[in-house]
Design brief:
Layout: H1 3-30, E1 42-46, H2 50-62, E2 71-75, H3 79-88, E3 95-98, H4 101-109, H5 118-121, E4 132-134, E5 137-139, E6 142-149, E7 152-155, E8 181-182, H6 193-207, H7 209-216, H8 225-238, H9 243-251, E9 281-283, E10 298-301, E11 315-325, H10 330-339, H11 342-351, H12 371-383, E12 386-389, H13 391-394, H14 397-412, H15 416-437, E13 452-453
Parallel strand pairs: 1-2, 1-3, 8-9, 11-12
Antiparallel strand pairs: 3-11, 4-5, 6-11, 7-9, 7-10, 12-13
Length: about 450
């Protein structure tokens, strides 16, 4: 065979191989796997801003799965409004992190949420994330990323006994003193929620988890004597307040006023250092510990202050931030699976400031290491008898928002006639919400068994 014929055959084979490569590459492009194409950036919408948001985003950026996947975190204090606007524009985030089980339930029943992977679903259990029956199929649609304990009282009262700070355990002592309560109800679009926390906690400890669950899920009237009693007990605990004091509470942020001695002058100093006249006790969730970092502030279970029954001292109100998938991108489901796993939780704790280290739902999870944080984590994961999810966050959004507004009106005018009027209005909102669920419960099908549960489900 001469050299010319050899060169011709070689050129033919080369062209054929090149055409084959081009065809394979074009086919790979249609599958999104050709050359160096990177996966689409996933958008995560969440409630954390400032130092909290930076810690979460730093964790997210280190959550490398080897695929080149990238993430964009959008943190906002106007979470519901932002998400609603994105959904209306048909541009939802891939993953959203919400604290309202009522909202999540509505989104699941209207087809907005995608079921979680089997691995992520195994980390979702009551009271954080009960499975839902949607279109006849039982699935899990969200999973807790971080959790908080709400049934707490913070104080600087040096007259109280200081013993037992580290090991007092789950059973609250009965408080014989009459605290001067700090109350601040302002929180922009959600003003009033610190008052709803009071009423929920009082009902839980005076009437018990069963009544609490029936009320939270729309199965019990707002005019039920036990619900009404929770409102009047709150008013009695706060005592008579001057007009100036009421106005201050209605306009002051729940984190207090800025501390002028803090670096930058913008850090809040908490209600214990903000109100006039001086108050001694604050009913607030575990998240507030960042405000009092470095201060000599005591924290106790709220049960001993609420005139409740000792049989219910082991019940605690809790809250959580839940991750749910809103897009069809399978990578979003994988991300939620990874965000709820041990690697992400360990990274998150290492990125967060000491006073902002999150609480996680499992006893085996990495938890805060400061004395107050360890005590709260022990209650959340081991020592409580029952954990009950924040009732207003269980309610449909319309009922929750009406509850917020009613609290503000009652705080200004805590008379019997006004209370009767408000409870009647809340019942009307509850009844209006019920048909939307198709169950007559007003909860979008949230099972009663999903509201209260022992630690670990």
């Amino acid at each position: 065979m001469n050299r010319a014929r050899i060169r011709a055959r070689t050129r033919t084979r080369t062209r054929a191989a090149f055409r084959g490569f081009l065809a394979a590459c074009l086919l790979a492009v249609t599958a999104g796997a050709c050359a160096d194409e990177k996966p689409a950036t996933l958008v995560v919408l969440g409630p954390w801003t400032g130092d909290e948001g930076e810690a979460f985003e730093a964790m997210l950026n280190k959550l490398d799965d080897g695929t080149g996947q990238t993430y964009t975190y959008q943190g906002t204090r106007s979470l519901r409004e932002t998400l609603v606007a994105q959904l209306e524009a048909d541009a939802p985030p891939d993953v959203a992190i919400l604290n309202s089980v009522g909202e999540l339930t509505e989104y699941a029943r209207t087809g907005r949420l995608k079921p979680l992977t089997t691995t992520a679903a195994a980390r979702a259990y009551p009271p954080w994330a009960p499975a839902l029956s949607v279109d006849g199929t039982r699935r899990t649609y969200w999973v807790p990323l971080k959790v908080d304990l709400k049934s707490l009282v913070w104080s600087r009262d040096r007259q109280e006994r200081q013993e037992g700070q580290e090991g007092q355990g789950r059973k609250a002592g009965r408080s014989a003193a009459a605290p001067a309560w700090c109350v601040a109800l302002a929180s922009q679009a959600t003003s009033g929620w610190p008052g709803t926390d009071w009423i929920e906690d009082i009902l839980l400890h005076r009437a018990g988890p069963g009544v609490y669950t029936a009320w939270a899920t729309g199965r019990l009237s707002w005019r039920d004597p036990r619900v009404r009693d929770a409102w009047t007990t709150w008013a009695a605990l706060l005592g008579k307040r001057s007009k100036a004091s009421v106005d201050e509470s209605l306009t002051m942020s729940y984190v207090g006023t800025p501390d002028p001695s803090a670096k930058g002058g913008g850090a809040p100093r908490g209600l214990l250092g903000s109100m006039t006249p001086r108050c001694t006790h604050e009913h607030q969730s575990a998240f507030i510990r960042y405000v009092y970092a470095g201060d000599r502030v005591r924290v106790d279970p709220a049960a001993g202050f609420l005139r409740g029954r000792s049989a219910h001292d082991g019940a605690y109100e809790v809250a959580g931030d839940m991750a749910a998938v809103f897009s069809d991108n399978p990578a979003a489901r994988t991300l939620v699976e990874r965000l709820s796993g041990g690697t992400a939780r360990t990274l998150w704790r290492s990125e967060a400031k000491k006073e902002l280290r999150p609480f996680f739902p499992d006893a085996a999870d990495p938890q805060p290491t400061d004395a107050t944080g360890r005590r709260i984590a022990a209650i959340l994961t081991r020592e409580a008898d029952t954990l009950c999810f924040d009732a207003s966050d269980v309610m449909p959004p319309g009922v929750r928002d009406a509850f917020h507004r009613a609290v503000l009106r009652y705080f200004r005018d805590p008379g019997d006639a006004r209370l009767d009027e408000l409870l009647e209005q809340l019942d009307a909102v509850r009844e209006d919400a019920a048909p939307d669920s198709g169950t007559g419960t007003g909860t979008g099908g949230l099972p009663a068994s999903g509201v209260c549960a022992p630690p670990g489900g």
